[in-house]
Amino acid sequence: MRPVVVAGVGMIPFERRDEDSLMDMLATAGLNAMDDAGIGDRPIGSVYVGNMASGLFNHQVSVASALVDRLSLLPAAADRVENGPASGGSAIKNGFLAVASGFNDVVLVVGGEKMREVIGPKATDIVACMTHPQVEYIYGVTLPAMAGMFARLYMEKYGITREHLSMVAVKNQANGLLNPYAHIQMKITMEGILEHPQAHINSPVVADPIHLYDCCPVSDGAAAVLLTTEEIANKLKKPLVMIDGVGQATDTHTLQERSDPTDLKAVTLASEQAFKMAGIKPKDIDVAELHDAFTILEIAESEHAGFFPKGEGAKALERGETQIGGKLPINPSGGLKARGHPVGATGVAQVVELVWQLRGEAGDRQVKNAANGFSLNFGGFGNNVLAFVLRRKS
Amino acid sequence: MKTITAYKCNKCGLVMYPYHDRCLNCKGRDFKEITPTSKGRLLTYTVIEQLPWGMDERGRVLGVVEFDNGVKALGLIKEDAPRIGMKVKVSWEPVREMGGEKIYGLTFEKTK
Questions:
Q1: Min Cα–Cα distance to chain A from B112, Å
Q2: Is the pLDDT of residue B1 over 80?
């Protein structure tokens, strides 16, 4: 396989974007990545679009064909990649394989979702379509409910408290304030979401023990990366950031069929695969973007990915190790919690953040001297997970 | 009583629900259809305050139960203060309306 370089990255701010169609968002993010790379009018061989549910949210399908038309990239190959909340990560994996295999020299990967076109409960329903139709969906299960059932067991097993969950929320929303692309631009405090006698009014129960401030917002947004070979990237203007490791693993569709439902096996396996391919270890990572759709997941993933032993993730959080400036900053972008989670965009936005961090372009949230980055994109409720290891080429 | 159908692998004995075309353990393709025993134990639960579109209620309790014969399934818990390990008995009742039609599923009630 040939080495693969992320030569360009682009995003649009995640927020409620009533003025933009899904296609407007995908096109702008895509152009931003192309311009960031300085690719000019060079041909792009393939376009991969990560998107979960444009048919349900926006009454539009075949969005990859529409995007190459908008961007005048014809006759580039174009595919939409759907893999639930890991659609963005899967799209990047496909783009990576196209360049690594020699099938294409230049590939554009765009992830995007426009979720606020429908009302909140409808969005909850559309997202719940990823659950098992006969044995889960009919009961009214939601993704926060899956997180609630998981959190109850995980918290009991490892002594994690609601205080720990709230610490993730406070940290990530503080980071989000440093990220102009983040949806939620609001400082919160432990007092406001947990300790004050009326904190339950600010942060009501969504699916016990998951509260409002344990959940990511519902967002519109898009993000893009331009992937190419070292040979071409050397002719472009940006410092080289390599995708050194890619991993992906799956687990049972339903939570109840896992012999230990607190064990996120697919996270462990995908991470191990990515680290093995990159030839480095979790301790070599300087910055990580994890899939904190719910606060409990940041803690659980930090352990399953190998950064901390099981039960130690919350302690590292307590000690401030996962803050910007700590030993291993997690989600300096604000994570899904603050940046937002336009489902198909997330896996791409995580890689965009890593590239900014590794290039030293992350502004006020810059992690000093970051050379190796890791991202984890968590699909379903842990049934399809992607992991990436990125490296700044010195 | 109507209930769910679970599957026990004829080769290795693994109990599965829902259906898989090959055994999750040994890849076997022959299964015996089994039904959950009438009683089980609550493994985990949640109380959902924000339900999907089409469900106008709050405080819906869902949880996963392991039945005495090893079947594990999600269902609706008819108990306001559940706890992990609680013994439940199972019924088959409407759990939701979709398109004006009653959808039946598993419901759990506390028992001794």
A1: 23
A2: no
Q: Does the residue A160 lie in any domain?
A: no
The tens digit of pLDDT for each residue in A51-95 reads: 999 999 999 999 999 999 999 999 999 999 999 999 999 999 999
* Backbone CA torsion sign across A361, A364, A370, A374: negative
Instruction: With beta carbons under 8 A apart, name residues in chain B contacting A122.
Output: 52-53
CA angle A130, B109, A151 (to 5 degrees): 45
Q: Report in angstroms the alpha-carbon separations of B39 from A44, B80, B85.
A: 60, 19, 12
Domain extents for chain B?
1-35, 37-110
Q: Which domain holds residue A27?
A: 4-119+218-233
Contacts of A53 in chain B (CB under 8 A): none
B-chain residues within 8 Å CB-CB of A139? 62, 74-76, 95-96, 105
Pairing of strands A241-250, A4-11: antiparallel
Summarize pLDDT for A311-344 with one digit per residue, the tens: 999 999 999 999 999 999 999 999 999 999 999 9
Reply yes or no on domain B37-110 having CATH 2.40.50: yes
- Structural domains counted in chain A: 1
Provide the ipTM.
0.97
